[in-house]
Specification:
This protein has 369 residues and is mainly alpha-helical. It is built from 10 helices and 3 strands; from the N terminus they run E-H-H-E-E-H-H-H-H-H-H-H-H. It is elongated and about 90 Å long. The protein starts with a strand and ends in a 40-residue tail after the last helix.
Length: 369
C-alpha cells in the first residue's frame, strides 16, 4: 500500500496539519478520532485515498479518518518487512543483523494483527474484496511474517548444529505456515494473487523437504535406516517440486518484485544435504541394517517446543494531550471554507513504482521476499 493523493476540499485544514506533522500531532489527531464516538463529524470531513499492493492502479478511498489511520499503520508494517528484506539480502549478515530481521518480521506481524483486531472492524464502509485491508490479505501477511521470522530461527539452528529433530519440527511448522497463507489466498482473483501464491507454495515445499531431510537424519540415528531412506526420498520429491515451482513463480506475472530463492546458497545447499544423507542411509542399510524400505512416506507429526514465532504485541502511541474531547468538540464545521465550484480536475492515473528484482546474494541464512 502506498500513499496517493488526498482530497483538497479543506485547504485551510490541510495547511494546519502540515505544520503539525513534525511534532506527531497529526497522528494523534487521527488516533483521537478513532477513539472518539462514531458520531464525530470530524472523522468524516475529508476523503482519503491509498493505493493497494495487489490492485495498485485503482486506489481505495474512504471518507473516514479511521481508514487513514489503518492505512498508515499498514504502511509501517510493510516498512518493517522491507527493512528485514534489505538486511537479509546483504552479504555476510552478522548475528545482530539476523536478530534485527527476526524482530522486524515479528513487529510487522504484530502491527497487522493489531489493525485487524482493533481498528479495521471500526470502518463504516466494509473493505472491498482483494484490497489490502481485507481479512484474507491481512491474515496472509500475518502468517507469512511469522513464517519468514522462523526461517531465521531454522538457519540459526542449522548453523549451530542443533538436534536434527528440532530442525525438522521447526521446518515442518514453517511449511505449514506457508501452506496456510496460500490457502487463505486461494479464493482471491488469480490475476492478483497467483504470483504471491506460487511463492508461498514453493516455500511450503522447500520447508517440507527440510522437514523430511532432518527427520530422516533422526530416524537414521535411531537405527531406523529403512524409514530414514523413505523419508529422504520424500525430501527429494519435495525439493524437486520446489525447484519446479521456483521456475513457475519466476514466469508468473503479477504485482510485486520477483525474488530468486533458487539462486540462494541457502536453497541450493539443501539439495546437496538431501543427496548426501540419502546416500549415507542407503550405504549403511546395505552394510549393516538390511531393512526394508516402507512403501509409504512417514507421517510427520512433529511439534516444535522451541523457536516458534508469535507476533510482538503492538499498540498505537498515546493520543497527544492537545486532542482532548473538549478540543475535538470545539471544531465548528460550519466555518470550513466553501468548496470550489470550478470544474473538478480529472482523476490522475496511479502509476505503480517499479522496484528492482532481488538479486541472489551469498548465503544469508534466510529467504525473505
Amino acid at each position: 500500500m502506498s500513499i496517493e493523493h488526498k482530497d483538497e476540499s479543506v485547504p485551510d485544514l490541510q495547511k494546519t496539519v502540515e505544520g503539525q506533522k513534525q511534532e506527531g500531532i497529526l497522528p494523534g489527531f487521527i488516533i483521537a478520532l478513532d477513539n472518539s464516538s462514531q458520531d464525530s463529524k470530524l472523522r468524516y470531513m475529508q476523503n482519503f485515498k491509498w493505493t493497494d499492493t495487489l490492485q495498485g492502479q485503482i486506489p481505495s478511498a474512504q471518507q473516514d479518518a479511521v481508514f487513514e489511520l489503518v492505512s498508515m499503520g499498514f504502511n509501517v508494517a510493510l516498512w518493517y518487512t522491507k527493512y528485514a528484506s534489505r538486511l537479509a539480502g546483504e552479504e555476510g549478515i552478522t548475528e545482530d543483523e539476523a536478530k534485527d530481521v527476526h524482530r522486524s518480521m515479528k513487529i510487522a506481524a504484530g502491527i497487522f494483527k493489531h489493525l485487524k483486531e482493533s481498528h479495521i472492524p471500526k470502518l463504516i464502509t466494509p473493505v472491498e474484496k482483494g484490497r489490502d485491508l481485507e481479512g484474507r490479505l491481512i491474515d496472509s501477511y500475518i502468517i507469512q511474517c511469522q513464517a519468514e521470522a522462523q526461517e531465521v530461527t531454522i538457519a540459526r539452528a542449522i548453523e549451530l548444529k542443533h538436534n536434527p529433530g528440532l530442525i525438522a519440527a521447526l521446518a515442518y511448522e514453517t511449511a505449514n505456515f506457508y501452506q496456510k497463507a496460500d490457502q487463505t489466498l486461494s479464493s482471491l482473483d488469480p490475476a492478483y494473487a497467483l504470483k504471491w501464491r506460487k511463492y508461498l507454495q514453493l516455500k511450503s515445499c522447500f520447508y517440507m523437504a527440510y522437514a523430511f531431510c532432518y527427520h530422516g537424519q533422526t530416524l537414521l540415528a535411531s537405527d531406523k535406516c529403512g524409514e530414514s531412506i523413505r523419508s529422504l526420498q520424500e525430501a527429494e520429491k519435495f525439493y524437486a517440486k520446489a525447484e519446479k515451482l521456483c521456475k513457475e513463480y519466476g514466469e508468473t506475472k503479477g504485482p510485486g518484485t520477483t525474488a530468486k530463492p533458487s539462486g540462494h546458497l541457502f536453497f541450493t545447499k539443501l539439495g546437496t544435504v538431501v543427496k548426501k544423507t540419502l546416500e549415507k542411509s542407503q550405504r549403511e542399510n546395505g552394510f549393516i541394517y538390511f531393512q526394508k524400505i516402507p512403501p509409504e512416506a512417514p507421517q510427520l507429526e512433529l511439534k516444535a517446543n522451541y523457536g516458534l514465532v508469535e507476533p510482538i504485541a503492538f499498540e498505537f502511541p498515546a493520543v497527544h494531550a492537545q486532542w482532548s474531547p473538549e478540543s475535538l468538540a470545539a471544531f465548528d464545521l460550519t466555518k470550513r471554507p466553501k468548496e470550489d465550484n470550478a470544474k473538478p480536475k480529472a482523476e490522475e492515473e496511479v502509476k505503480p513504482v517499479k522496484e528492482p528484482d532481488i538479486k541472489p546474494q551469498k548465503d544469508t541464512g534466510c529467504q525473505i521476499s
